[in-house]
Write a structure and sequence with these properties.
- The chain is 45% helix and 10% strand.
- The chain is an alpha+beta fold.
- The chain has a domain of 195 residues: Butyryl-CoA Dehydrogenase, subunit A, domain 3.
- Strands 6-5-4-3-7 form a 5-stranded antiparallel beta sheet.
- A hairpin with a 5-residue loop joins β1 and β2.
- α4 packs antiparallel against α5.
- The longest helix is centred in the middle third of the chain and has 34 residues.
- The radius of gyration is 32 Å and the shape is elongated.
- It is a multi-pass membrane protein.
Length: 279
Amino acid sequence: MSISLFAMPFSLRQGKWNHLEGPGCFVCRVSWDQVAHPQLVGLWLGSIGWILTMVTIGMVQWRLWVVADMSVVSSGLAWVGIWRVCFYSHTVVTSQRGPLYCQKMDISDRFIPKEIAVAQVLMLLALVLGLLANASTLYGLRNVFFGLDERRPIRVAFTAGGLLHLLSSLCSLLPLSLNLHAVATNQNISFPENFHMPPTPLQQYVGVAIRVGISAAVLTIVSGVMFLCYQFPVRAHARVEPSWAEESSSNDPSAGRPHYFRPYLACRDNPAFQSQEHV
């Protein structure tokens, strides 16, 4: 006796049937993890966006200043970040960084313009919100792939994670836009004397950090939208009704077995398939 595996429902072959509804009738359901693959990509994009946001915060290349006086700024180029200002100098040298001279900036400093002060606060807030968003979406995916049948925890986790991702991207885009506008309008900064920086540069250019931050915000937005668009699958019921009467004789090969296996164990060999196998 041979049993055709392809005669069984796909969900039964995958071991994803749940319970029975009468003799010889299988009630199958669509597994939720089959439709959660876009959200898995969303978690990956959100994690990359969060890492790039952290890199953006630590970078000093937010604004590139071109200065005229090269007596102190040897290369004529200075990098203005949200936490410090750096440039190469052969006149002012620090033992820690060698020819790279850096001065830290704090939010309590009076000379700091509003775009830098806002960036110091909102970029850190975006980092915290992104971390919470990734944790929430990871919890939701854990419930999906572990087969949790309750929809409410999954929906709450994905919705909260998506909203936190969008809020994190908003907190990043606002200071990035302000600094981008400051570069475009060539706004000045009244640095103190110990910074050895002129108040106004000859030219300003957009630094690498702003580009990285915008890329991170875009990835975070895409991730948030993907989690907010998650839809639960419709439960599908696949029925297999036997067209023969179940025999209760002692020579029944399905005797002693659960009744939901009897329709398949009662299958008979098809002579047509056997004749093809001998050819």
